[in-house]
């Protein structure tokens, strides 16, 4: 009888454990369902995840998805950033901070961004909220608070500084993504780096509010505030665009950027910005430039390290360009201090491999010109500046490619 009771207790315990595990996994699945629903119930998702956390508070995955639920509750998408609140930001940030405390190396499957990136984005979004309310001190505090809580990693900020240093005076840099916008925002607003450079997030241009934060003296766009409010996506067919300038002509084939038949609000604003500013300000796109936000200008872009410069006469490189590129590449390195924070963040590793892409671009250029010896010199410089022990590869494809490239360059 005693053995039977023991067996029954064990069976009941196993059944309870299985039920608990199912309930915990159900909480994650429920959030994922809400994140694609037309009318998502993020509050309910956060509550379900809290019940899962109450059963097992040591699993970082439940805190991670709860952070996403709180973040979506605070701002379902970029259009709602002006409405984010401090309490909502704190709730989301606290959840991701708990993830870092439990698993600083993020050794679990990520949904989208890692917790370090999410913390930066949460407090960067609050910066925009305060900026729109004309509260500069609060906006400044939000960025500092984001860093204090674990966002804005040193290696990511170093990469942001190098990105700004790549641009000429009064340059305009177009890019997109949390690890583009928010680190650049931090180093410009908090550290005062290269405030002559205008950073533009192409994706945020699709929102109703972001263009209102762009400079008006002198203006980047020709639209009035009233006209800006009316700009939306429009039908578009592939067509030639040509801007006549005093010294040159900018001409290229502009294709639809959305669903094969439209261009978005952001595309229209970028086209206007380009028309207004290209004659007197250097334009850059972050490497690698995606045609979806670079307006299909690829044939007119010259790679210059972390950025690609727009040039109406792409292919007619200035005589000093080779030395100019070398100066950039010699700056790209990862320090031991940077690496300590870098290796915990998969997003940061992916971002900083942009240094390697800059080297690879230059190596490819030399090989295309038949200068194998020069390519080998650049390859060795890359290996010395960016050793694997400090900057891991972010995917096996790059690792295998560089291994094959090294073998080719070492062939006599």
What report would you give on this structure?
The chain has 412 residues and is of the alpha/beta class. The protein folds into three domains: 21-148, Serine Threonine Protein Phosphatase 5, Tetratricopeptide repeat (Alpha Horseshoe), CATH 1.25.40.10; 154-311, no CATH class; 324-410. Helix content is 53%, strand content 9%. It contains 16 helices and nine strands. It has helices at residues 2-34, 42-55, 60-74, 86-102, 115-132, 136-148, 154-165, 178-189, 225-228, 265-277, 321-331, 336-342, 346-352, 354-368, 372-385, 396-410, and strands at residues 172-175, 198-201, 234-235, 239-244, 249-254, 262-263, 283-286, 301-304, 307-310. The strands form three sheets. Strands 2-1-7-9-8 form a five-stranded mixed beta sheet. A two-stranded antiparallel sheet has the order 3-6. Helix 8 links the parallel strand 1 (172-175) and strand 2 (198-201). Helix 14 (354-368) packs antiparallel against helix 15. The longest helix is centred in the N-terminal third of the chain and has 33 residues, at 2-34. The termini are far apart. 35% of the residues are buried.
**Total helix count?**
16
Radius of gyration in whole Å, from Cα? 25 Å
Query: What's the end-to-end separation, in Å?
Result: 82 Å
Low-confidence residue ranges: 7-17, 314-326
Form type: globular
Number of strands: 9
Indicate how many domains the architecture comprises.
Answer: 3
Cross-sheet strand order for the largest sheet: 2-1-7-9-8
- Secondary-structure content class: alpha/beta
Query: What's the helix-strand series?
Result: HHHHHHHEHEHEEEEHEEEHHHHHH
Largest sheet: 5 strands, mixed
What does the average pLDDT come to? 89
> What proportion of the residues is helical, as a percent range?
40-55%
Instruction: Provide the β-strand percentage band.
Output: 5-15%
